[in-house]
From TrEMBL:
<dbReference type="InterPro" id="IPR009045">
    <property type="entry name" value="Zn_M74/Hedgehog-like"/>
</dbReference>
<protein>
    <submittedName>
        <fullName>Peptidase M15</fullName>
    </submittedName>
</protein>
<dbReference type="GO" id="GO:0006508">
    <property type="term" value="P:proteolysis"/>
</dbReference>
<dbReference type="Pfam" id="PF02557">
    <property type="entry name" value="VanY"/>
</dbReference>
<keyword id="KW-1133">Transmembrane helix</keyword>
<feature type="domain" description="D-alanyl-D-alanine carboxypeptidase-like core">
    <location>
        <begin position="111"/>
        <end position="241"/>
    </location>
</feature>
<dbReference type="GO" id="GO:0008233">
    <property type="term" value="F:peptidase activity"/>
</dbReference>
<dbReference type="InterPro" id="IPR003709">
    <property type="entry name" value="VanY-like_core_dom"/>
</dbReference>
<dbReference type="InterPro" id="IPR058193">
    <property type="entry name" value="VanY/YodJ_core_dom"/>
</dbReference>
<keyword id="KW-0472">Membrane</keyword>
<feature type="region of interest" description="Disordered">
    <location>
        <begin position="1"/>
        <end position="20"/>
    </location>
</feature>
<keyword id="KW-0812">Transmembrane</keyword>
<feature type="compositionally biased region" description="Polar residues">
    <location>
        <begin position="1"/>
        <end position="10"/>
    </location>
</feature>
<feature type="transmembrane region" description="Helical">
    <location>
        <begin position="28"/>
        <end position="49"/>
    </location>
</feature>
<dbReference type="InterPro" id="IPR052179">
    <property type="entry name" value="DD-CPase-like"/>
</dbReference>
Length: 263
């Protein structure tokens, strides 16, 4: 029995020693794993940073509001054939200072960017063929013209009893702040009825249904006021090209949304 006990205690001691050395081994393995993990983490961080540094994506941050999206879009489309007609100008995105424009004068004295003239003519021909008679009430505008329109609108609201700041705020929802009007680009037109053969609602209805086929979009739909920053203007049409206009019409997107989706 004693022997047996002795034997058994000797066996126990051996087991304890074995366990200790196994524990030590395990401890070493754990330490090695931790060191490997730290090295791996460091390697990952360094490589991650390197990837970010060589990323080809342009990082743009200009101005406020929607400008990040739009600047990126303009940048991205710079080499694109259609970039000129997808330029975004709104209250958050002023016209570039070096913006160049070549005008074509219309028969009633208004003018538009030469590049949109054929599409505008085609659209008007198609409308007349359908018995609808539109006229271009306003095409290209200079910055001075835009400024005087703004002043007139503010004065109108002040005459109605608004304070100066109220009148200014109200006017700015109807008239674009000079430097931010699409009319200064020459690729937007206010279209009204001739007032004899057609009335306004006939013309607006026809344009809304058919404008996109000629590359023109209703620029400020009533449902998109918060995105465009402009109240409903059923007469204001903007040229974006047939492809973009069709997509925007099919998906019910305003220009801001369309450009954001393209990013
Ligand atoms: Zn307009």
């Amino acid at each position: 029995m004693v022997n047996c006990n002795n034997n058994s205690s000797g066996y126990e001691r051996k087991r304890t020693l074995k366990q200790r050395s196994r524990k030590r081994k395990n401890h070493m393995i754990l330490r090695l794993i931790s060191v490997a993990a730290v090295i791996g983490l460091l390697w990952y961080c360094i490589n991650g940073l390197n990837l970010k540094e060589v990323s080809p994506e342009p990082i743009l941050s200009v101005g406020t509001g929607n400008s990040n999206v739009s600047s990126a879009s303009i940048e991205k489309n710079n080499n694109d054939e259609t970039s000129w007609c997808l330029i975004l100008v709104n209250r958050w995105n002023a016209i570039p200072e070096d913006y160049d424009i070549d005008l074509t004068e219309l028969s009633n004295g208004q003018a538009v960017d030469t590049r949109i003239y054929p599409a505008l003519q085609n659209m008007f021909d198609a409308a007349r063929a359908d018995g609808v008679y539109p006229v271009v009430a306003s095409g290209y505008r200079t910055a001075e013209k835009q400024q005087s329109l703004m002043e007139e609108k503010i004065a109108t609201y002040q005459a109605e009893g608004y304070t100066v700041s109220q009148a200014k705020a109200e006017a700015e929802t109807w008239v674009a702040i000079p430097g931010t009007s699409e009319h200064q680009l020459g690729i937007a037109v206010d279209i009204n009825a001739d007032g004899v053969k057609s009335n306004g609602s006939e013309v607006y209805k026809w344009l809304k249904q058919n404008g996109y086929r000629f590359g023109f979009i209703l620029r400020y739909p009533p449902s998109k006021t918060e995105i465009t920053g402009v109240s409903n203007e059923p007469w204001h049409y903007r040229y974006v090209g047939i492809e973009a206009a069709t997509e925007m019409n099919d998906q019910n997107l305003c220009l801001e949304e369309y450009l954001r989706e393209r990013d």
